[in-house]
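Subject: sequence -> structure tokens, single chain

Hey, anyone have a minute? Need the predicted structure for the following. Not urgent.
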Amino acid sequence: MTTTVLTMTLAGIGSDLRNKDLTGAGRRLVAVLSMLLGAVCGATLVLHLGVTAAIASVAILLAVTLLGATIAARGTPAWAARARERK
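Reply:
Had a minute. Here:
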């Protein structure tokens, strides 16, 4: 991930707070904390278990995410079902 993503997210937090958009600022703060947590976990894995363990954990996490997204995407969304009923 490039530093641009993190920098723009932090700038967005400042903008949201200035505009009193606490929901947007909270969402961006969660994103920043997720990036920080991912960096800490990755560094810990590399330092204590090696690069192979870090890459393997990323591959497993990616597979689980793909499986979850595939399951969540099954079926007809509610908005599409309502559109079919109108026809």
